[in-house]
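Now for one specimen:
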Amino acid sequence: MRAWFWMLLLLALAVGLGVVLREHSGNVLIIAQPWRIEMSLTLFALLLLAAFVVLYLLFRGLSWLLSSPERFREWRGLRARKRDHELLESGWLHVLEGRYPQAEQELSRLLGRTRSSNTRVLAGLALARACHQQGQMQRRDEALTLARSAVGTDSRLKESWATAVAEMYLDQHRAQEALTLLQPYQDTGAKHLNATRLLLQAHQQLNNADQVFELTRQLLRRGAIDKQKAQPLIAQSVAERLRAAGPEGFRSVWGELRGDEKTLPEIALAAAHVQQQAGHADEAGKILEAALNEQLEPRLLNAYSQAPADQVSRRINKAEGWLKSHPDSSALLAALGNLCLTGQLWGSGERYLLRSMAIRSDVRIHALLGNLYDRLGRQADAMKHWRLASGVAGVLPVLPGSTVLPAADTRGDPTLIDVQDLESSSTEAASFGEVPVAASAADYLESEESVNATDPGAASAKTPDPNPQDPDYHEYFDSAPIPGVDLSQTSDRPTRRGS
């Protein structure tokens, strides 16, 4: 556009000059002794214009020649910056694509040749990340040191270096070191959002519930974190703060929360637990009711059903109101059943639990039914539901048929009587009319003398020995080891008759 404008201006000047010179047909006389030059005014104007153009071109040419060294240096610098930019771009692309060896190779070349401090910082941070992902921590620290030396006093580069290093430290769970780097960049504005996010992560690793709560709230106000992600962080941090504060500091923590935060399940459960510990069962019930009005969460219903006797009637009425709008809630029916059992309303409790079990077979419901029937004296039904509870919870793995279970170590049993002591104590046993039997003495064989001493008639009624003269017979039944059982690990070791 500018070129067309100047062309039109020159054409207009040329036309105007032509018109003026045509109307003023005069002569120009130039006297320079010994010469006398006379020419028309038109020719003089054209020569003057031509001289101006020639002189302009001459001076521009001289200027171009004199500035050639400077222009050559600028050209070389531009070419070097372009090459560095290409290497930096390629290195970062390799880092983002996960090709860390190629990135390390190109970024190392760039660090060795570039003279730009900004490029050195960016290349050093990229190289550090590539080494970090490969687990080369020593090489990573060297790259970070190079980048730090190139930062100088530039505040923007300092922040970039600090946030990049803090992110790597957080990957290694070095939260305290990351916190030291990020602390100067914590503010309430929108300038250091990434540093604030990293600070939140560092305080999470350090379990600093107060700082996690405050930073999450800051990020949520500035729209830097999604609400679905912020709510679990707020709930967990506030629950930890409530448990740490206890009944004494409950009011100060509870007063900082908004209405929607007080109804989060984690917060409501922790607050109700603190109030229950302080003996304020009514306050605990109100906190749980406010949360349950928002959502019938099973954990809240379970906590709500654990009520003292004086709160049962009120909570049953409240839960029956929820049941009108949620008739198919298995957790709500189970909570009502538990409340009825606490209030000894056996019939209503059974009906609610059976309705809940019809919707979902749960181990807790079977256990409650088992307890109910046990209280009512219906032992068969109680055993049935207890077995069903164990079945819902899980079954034992099927053991291979060839596996032999090892013998139990009963050496610590205070009621155990060693087989070796039985022969020496047979006389004492006869005075009590029976032989003491240890819990693990399954292979114990009464001697003929002890039987005669305790019951003379039993000797004649005793089954005759198949081969009383065969010593191997008694040797087998007295001392033969049980297959697969290491008798050295038991205290009921068999005794030979000849010993």
The chain has 25 helices and two strands. Residues 419-480 form one domain. The first strand starts at residue 27 and ends at 32. The CA atoms of residues 289 and 304 lie 8 Å apart.
